[in-house]
Write a structure and sequence with these properties.
Distance between the termini: 36 Å
Shape: globular
Strand content: 15-25%
Oligomer: single chain
CATH topology: Rossmann fold
Largest sheet: 10 strands, mixed
Order of helices and strands: HEHEHEEEEHEHHEEHHE
Number of helices: 8
Number of domains: 1
Bound molecules: S-adenosylmethionine
Length: about 290
């Protein structure tokens, strides 16, 4: 199973950025903001990739004053948020200074104040500082959570008048080139693993975006969804290798007890690794982005 390390998040960030359905962000331009600007809460922020992707786009949609609160339960990942954000700002020619224990990112015509805090979303949902009439966002989180947890989150967001932008939820679609006879079997095992408990109860896995869309609609939200698939070409060897290793481990965990099963999964991984080495491997990994406006 893929471990949520700084290295893994850094490896996937370019594919995530290229995949995201950024056209959805324009619809957030109409969100009313108070004098202080747009309040944004980023759930499961990791090292801050969602912040770095979204802040300039929100600015482009008219939110030139933003106040971000980024939450995660992993202190190690949170500790990487400031240096990664400073490095990103420098590369983008943005000013980034420390202010009040957080960061202050400034471009010529927009500004984002960034704070972060440790919080276990599974155990401490009631403590979440929801921004009234602001934006609640998450990237690559939704497939980890359970349906009761999601229902409780959405209900609280609706009551607080929050908009939601839930990006990059894995939806179970995978296409592997060149094809191998065992691809479908491995992906089916991976998708079963996706439904196992990731700390929130039985995970929504590939059903996450559809479930969130349905539940948001039932709460009266205006919902838009768009695919945000990864298209990993032969040049993305590092991410392809890490993903295959994660798929292999997930599949093996599901078939434990079936003697010999690991052998065919390892053989499958060996063939796919050879395709990567030969510069022939392409992977499509299906994701969905979801926007819900109150
Ligand atoms: C796949 S990573 C995505 C990170 C980041 N949003 C990004 O796009 O790079 C999922 C994140 O959810 C966080 N997470 C998982 N379970 C959590 C929990 N119970 N409470 C808070 N954060 C959690 C992980 O620590 C990790 O940072």
């Amino acid at each position: 199973m893929l471990e949520l390390t700084d290295d893994w998040l850094a490896l996937r960030a370019p594919a995530d950025s290229a995949a995201r359905a950024d056209q959805l962000v324009a619809s957030l331009g109409g969100l009313p903001t108070g004098q202080g600007g747009l309040e944004v809460l980023d759930l499961g922020c990791g090292t801050g990739a969602n912040l770095r992707h979204l802040a300039p786009l929100l600015a482009g949609a008219g939110h030139v004053q933003q106040h971000w609160t980024c939450v995660d339960h992993d202190r190690g990942l949170l500790a990487r948020l400031p240096p990664r954000t400073r490095a990103w700002a420098e590369a983008q020619d943005l000013a980034c200074t420390e202010a009040g224990g957080g960061l202050d990112v400034r471009a010529g015509d927009w500004r984002a104040e960034v704070a972060w805090t440790t919080l276990d979303l599974a155990a401490e949902l009631q403590r979440l500082p929801l921004p009234a009439r602001g934006l609640v966002t998450a990237s690559a989180l939704l497939d980890l959570v359970s349906e009761p947890w999601l229902a409780a989150l959405l209900w609280r967001c609706r009551a607080a008048g929050c908009a939601l932008l839930l990006a990059l939820s894995y939806d179970g679609r995978c296409a592997l080139t060149p094809a191998h006879a065992c691809d479908a079997q491995v992906i089916a095992l991976v998708n079963r693993h996706q439904r196992s408990d990731k700390g929130f109860g039985p995970a929504l896995g590939p059903t996450a975006a559809a479930t969130a869309g349905r539940r948001c609609g039932a709460l009266g939200y205006l919902v838009q969804a768009a695919p945000s698939d990864w298209h990993l070409g032969p040049d993305m060897t590092g991410l392809q290798r890490a993903l295959l290793a994660g798929w292999r481990d997930a599949a093996v965990q599901i078939v434990t007890g079936d003697a010999g099963a690991a052998d065919w999964i390892d053989d499958w991984q060996g063939v796919r690794e050879a395709s990567i080495g030969a510069g022939e491997s392409r992977l499509l990994v299906g994701h969905m982005d979801l926007l819900a406006l109150p």
